[in-house]
């Protein structure tokens, strides 16, 4: 059994799996985790993993923590729009 701890913005998770676990942060997005069968969050809630690769939220705004639900893209698009609006003034 392999277990690694991962610190993400504001909290941490433990990724647990039967063999090697690989993680890869995406630019301004989630942490991709390969090889985990469980992800345990700070509250001790145990989330079963049923896919070869899962995306763990790193921005803290997901409505389905610990998983990324794409909310980071909406916030980035909103921020870009605000910057464009300011530049247009
Ligand atoms: S990284 Fe947080 S919602 Fe995607």
Walkthrough of the structure:
This is Iron-binding zinc finger CDGSH type. Pfam families: zf-CDGSH (PF09360). It comes from Microlunatus soli. One of its GO terms (molecular function) is metal ion binding. InterPro entries: FeS-contain_CDGSH-typ, MitoNEET_CISD. By secondary structure, the chain is α+β, with helices and mostly antiparallel strands. The chain has one domain. Helices cover 20% and strands 36% of the residues. The protein is built from one helix and seven strands, in the order βββββββα. Strands 1-2-5-6 form a four-stranded antiparallel sheet, with no helix packed on it. It has a three-stranded antiparallel sheet with strand order 3-4-7, with no helix packed on it. The longest helix is centred in the last third of the chain and has 18 residues. It is elongated, with a radius of gyration of 15 Å. The mean pLDDT is 92. The structure holds FE2/S2 (inorganic) cluster. The site of FE2/S2 (inorganic) cluster has 12 residues, from helix 1.
Could you provide a short overview of the structure?
By secondary structure, this protein is of the alpha+beta class. Helix content is 20%, strand content 36%. The longest helix is centred in the C-terminal third of the chain and has 18 residues.
């Amino acid at each position: 059994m392999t277990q690694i701890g991962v610190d993400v913005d504001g909290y941490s998770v433990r990724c647990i799996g039967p063999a090697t676990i690989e993680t890869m942060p995406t630019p301004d997005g989630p942490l991709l985790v390969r090889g985990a069968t469980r992800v345990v969050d700070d509250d001790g809630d145990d989330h079963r993993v049923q896919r070869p690769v899962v995306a763990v939220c790193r921005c803290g705004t997901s409505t389905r923590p610990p998983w990324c639900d794409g909310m980071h893209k909406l916030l980035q698009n909103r921020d870009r729009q605000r910057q464009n609006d300011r530049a247009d003034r």
